Amino acid sequence: HPGAVTIIATTPENQLILIRQFRAPAGQWLWEIPAGTLELDEDPLDCAIRELEEETGFASKYWKYLFPVFLAPGYSTERIHFFLASQSQPVEKARKGDDDEEIYYFKVNREKAQDMMTKGEIQDAKTIIALQYWLGGLT
To answer: What is the DSSP string of 88-125?
Structure first.
């Protein structure tokens, strides 16, 4: 696997941007943080910037690399790079995302994010990792 990126994107009001999209292998709509697969020889930060804009219509001037994670090292080489994008704002003319993706975004505060996790509404591993990081005040 070429690797991937994922973004903990927060707004100036310190809300987290989540996306909702249908995931065919899971057979359901999932709440996630923005993410995407690296292209051949693509810098992870460049990929993160592109994916945030394509999936949410937001951009940030403030980026910080956080850490890498192997998602399933027992059977996959996929490593995902976590980034923080602070002060994310809507872009007037955002890049168009993939034609086969139908994605909606939703901004949540810490209380709502915790509630969604507690109720089991968030089932995506990278998003749970990101929420634990964000809710723990590490951003």
So the answer is: -EE-TTPPP--TT--EEEEEE-HHHHHHHHHTT----H
Q: CA nearest 35: which of 52, 14, 56, 17?
A: 52
Q: How confident is the model at residue 99 (pLDDT cuts 50, 70, 90)?
A: low
Q: Which amino acid does the sequence have at 132? A: Q
User: What residues contact residue 78 under an 8 Å CB cut-off, 6+ apart?
Assistant: 1, 3, 4, 70, 71, 72
As a whole number of angstroms, the distance between CA 80 and CA 70 comes to 6
Query: What are residue 123's phi and psi, to 5 degrees?
Result: -120, 0
- With 0.90 as the threshold, say if the pTM is over it: yes
pLDDT digits (tens, 9 = 90+) for 50-83: 999 999 999 999 999 999 999 889 999 999 999 9
Dist CA 52 CA 75 (whole Å): 28
CA distance 30 to 132: 17
